[in-house]
Amino acid sequence: MAAIDQQLAPYLVGRPRRGVVGGSRYAVALREAVRDAARDPDRRPVLIHGEPGLEKDNLAALIHHGSADRRQPMIRLDATLMKPDSGELRELLGRLGRGTVLIDKLDLADPALQPLLLEHLSQGDARWMFTSESALQPFEGVCRQIRVPPLRVRRQDLGDWLRYDVRQQSRRQGWPQPPAMAPGVVEQLQRHDFPNNLRELEAVVARALRQARNQQGGQRPRLLPEDVFWTEGRNQPLRFELWRWRPWLRTQLRAPALWNGLLFGLVSWLFVLVNLWLWLGPQDRAHNGALNLFWAWWWPLILLAYPLVGRLWCSFCPFMVWGEIAQRLAQALGRSLPRWPRGSSDDWASPLLAAGFAAILLWEELAGLETHARRSSLLLLLITAGAVVGSLLVEKRFWCRYLCPVGGMNGLFAKLSVLELRAEAGTCSGSCSSYACFKGGPADGEGLATAGCPLGTHPAHLTDNRNCVLCLTCAQACPHRSITLRLRPPAADLQRTMDPPAGEPGLILVLAGGICVHHSEALLGWVPALLARLTTDGGPLPWGGFPQEFLPRLALSSLALALPAGLWLLVRGAGLRLLPHHPRPWLLLYALLPLLWATLLADHLRLGMAEAGQLLPVSLSPLRQMEGFGIAEALAAFTLPGWSADEHVIRFCQSLTVALGAGGSLVLGRRLLLPDLRGWLGQGAALLGLAVAARALVGLG
């Protein structure tokens, strides 16, 4: 017996390392399959197949130790090392008796080995188990099949796996008690596909425990923050690194003098001058250059910029520049600002952001902001006040990330951008322990002293452009050159696996409603007449002529704002079968994002192309009316340069823009929703109808 034990010893399998963790239907089904295989009175062979890193050998050990043969030995053989003509297997089987033999990696073995193994299945007393990364046709009829689902399809179990691994590994590393995890950790890791499954998850947890100690100077914290959990980024093809192509660009764009001069030397004071111009100058757009800048220049240009530079506007937005100035003054006076709150604030902030944008759209329409300078300035000042108050309540740019209505729109359309800033997760996890790119800190190597990411996001954790304003603070702070600036295909952030914040689809509906509000009389002008006919005398409505009074205008604009949401509820609830059995129906809204962007741009192109070129004549028009000093006479002597596009050119550009957006939505819908050709053609017909309606609507402006 001693000789037999010594012969089998190198191949013996110990007790299972763990059971099947989790409560999802996948985990329940897998536990049941393991239990049934263990209780099988016929001791049928078992083939366990699934992706790498799923611990299939551990499942085989669970079956053996849960069976009546648990007191018998279990040996494991690597199929890639076995030779078909070797007598080693036959000798081991003779010594094994009624034990269990596990043949690992059967799919990678010599093909000639499979017939030999099939012959052995009916010989001797041993029970056979096999592991493979795929099902094997010759073994399908003779083996019990157990398919192990990958971790990415049972994301519901990820929290249980994380807590289990943290408990096990923290004990092995000498922690007095297992630490807790920050609320956002599970949500953050659920966005990762884990191609190496449980093996990769174990490595992530081990690295998190080590880095948490490094952050605390060797102490073992009670809470593991989100920023110590690193995952390798997905393989993303079709990326072009700008800084590798032109290294001098990195040096120039990292220069603090560039950003400080732009933000605090130019933008902040230009914002003050524009608001003074709006308050003190003429109040109509035909005579106030600041109003022309706001509506004929800023809106069309910011919409044009989204597919090119994403959310770059937010990096030098004057609202937050003055918020940052207020924040620095408060800190200089000794005020200690609360730290950035842990966990995700999107659950409560995203609906507030969408509601704030809806209020702005209604105010814009009802107050006639496009034609009234002081009211436009008041809107700018109110948003700035929100930024200042938010900056005095929480460190960094909490307002900008979660609550600013304009920032929410910018973050949404930034997903269409061809530009992205990311960090190499492998470099960050293997080389960095300071996390200065998002926490801030002193200079380190070639890294500069910074206050950290203004939006509180580590660049290695970015899954889309929503929370990146391209301020390059992370590139300034990083001493390892991990940050890269890359060109990519448009709308690369929009994937089937994306996990947007709860309120973001609502913001899409609000933005679509804004177009309807702008054209509410064209869409719903029949409503007052219908209501008048429904009155007893058929006369005018009690509030007077429509739409001069405020209340009927508010009712009409609110109804127009709600039209896209109502249409969405109709699509969802009326059984139109646009998305049959789709688990994530809100992806339809993201598929329409290019068309929404194009319609908004086309709507603002009319004003931009007709009046932006008149900035100089409009700005100097008040001087023509000044008496004395000879100014009016001097200006009257020559014609100020200006241009305005022909109406036919404007209409052509609007049509081209809407057509471009419809084409983008068609391609994006193919990626997100409808892989079959028939569904794609149906979606194309629906998009064509929406594009025609959008073009007709903006043509009424």
Folded structure, characterized:
The protein has 701 residues and is mostly helical. It contains 30 helices and ten strands. The chain folds into four domains: 148 residues, P-loop containing nucleotide triphosphate hydrolases (Rossmann fold, 3-Layer(aba) Sandwich), CATH 3.40.50; 76 residues, Helicase, Ruva Protein, domain 3 (Orthogonal Bundle); 139 residues, no CATH class; 195 residues, no CATH class. The strands form three sheets. It has a five-stranded parallel beta sheet, with helices on one face. The protein has a three-stranded antiparallel beta sheet with strand order 8-10-9. A two-stranded parallel sheet has the order 6-7. About 2% of the residues have low confidence.
Concise account of the structure shown:
Helix content is 53%, strand content 6%. By secondary structure, the chain is mainly α.
Sum up the overall morphology in one term: elongated
Distance between the termini: 94 Å
Strand order of the largest sheet: 2-3-4-1-5
Over all CA atoms, what is the radius of gyration? 33 Å
List keywords for this structure.
mainly alpha, Rossmann fold, Helicase, Ruva Protein, domain 3, 5-stranded parallel beta sheet, 3-stranded antiparallel beta sheet
